[in-house]
Specification:
Helix content is about 75%, strand content about 0%. The chain is globular, with a radius of gyration of 18 Å. The protein has one domain (about 10-245). Helix 2 crosses helix 11. The protein has about 250 residues and is mainly alpha-helical. About 30% of the residues are buried.
């Protein structure tokens, strides 16, 4: 049986644990709010009306691709392309390649950052593998100007972080929506989780600050995982509506 991502791939390990995926979600939710192309997500109205659902949808498609058989993964990628094509038709404009690249680059970067935060440092080969998986997604989607290896991706990633991010009215509105849908307590936790995983420029633009004490909380959480009681903590801090979806993320 052929898979888009090999069964023993580090990418499956990364995307097969709810904890890691939630930190990928936290990082992406921060950077989505700053991206210069976020107006495309506002065009449909889906992001401001249901920001958590919209971001979980992105995560869901990524996981389908990571764990599906080869043909099913291609079908999922093509469905993503068709959804974006429909939006472009409605707006009578084309989403720029750099905006597509930014989303792929986020998936690569936060996959690495989240896993290294919660588990261990990845080897150069494992980082290259993470890059390769999502780069192949971009190739299938027909995105132009993609990097050819991890080193060139790193350079492009830094350039995009400098050039394609800014704090705007969309940023402020999206964070208001996060707070509205999460509630004050969970919104506070989201922002502290973002501090731990986002690049420095993202932190600076969002003015997230620096809380070293939260790093201690991660150490404590890792200890709770060893004791197999971390689910009690997750049940307290996670929105009720998303608990089944988040529980289903644990596959390894």
């Amino acid at each position: 049986m052929e898979y888009f991502v090999a069964p023993d791939s580090i990418v499956r390990k990364i995307w097969g644990k709810a904890d890691t995926v939630l930190f990928i979600f936290a990082g992406a939710s921060a950077e989505f709010a700053l991206n210069k192309a976020v107006d495309w997500l506002y065009f449909t109205g889906k992001l401001p009306s249901d920001p958590l659902g919209r971001l979980f949808s992105t995560v869901s498609y990524a996981r389908q691709i990571v764990f599906a058989e080869y043909d099913q993964a291609l079908f999922a990628i093509d469905k993503i392309s068709s959804i974006h094509w429909a939006v472009e038709q409605k707006r009578a404009a084309q989403i720029p390649d750099w905006a597509y690249q930014d989303v792929l680059f986020m998936l690569i970067d936060y996959s690495i950052r989240a896993f290294e935060l919660l588990e261990r440092k990845l080897t150069p080969e494992e980082k290259e593998e993470a890059f390769d998986v999502f780069n192949r997604v971009g190739v299938r989607m027909g995105i132009g100007g993609l990097p050819t290896n991890f080193d060139s991706w790193q350079q492009m990633r830094q350039e995009h972080i400098q050039e394609n991010l800014l704090s705007s009215d969309f940023t402020l509105d999206l964070y208001r929506q996060y707070k509205k849908h999460l509630g004050s307590g969970r919104f506070f936790i989201l922002k502290k989780a973002q501090i731990l995983v986002v690049p420095k420029r993202v932190n600076k633009l969002l003015k997230l600050g620096n809380l070293p004490i939260f790093t201690s909380a991660i150490i404590t959480y890792k200890f709770l995982r060893l004791l197999k009681i971390e689910n009690y903590l997750k049940n307290v801090i996670l929105p009720e509506a998303y608990k089944p979806q988040i529980a289903a993320l644990d596959t390894v």
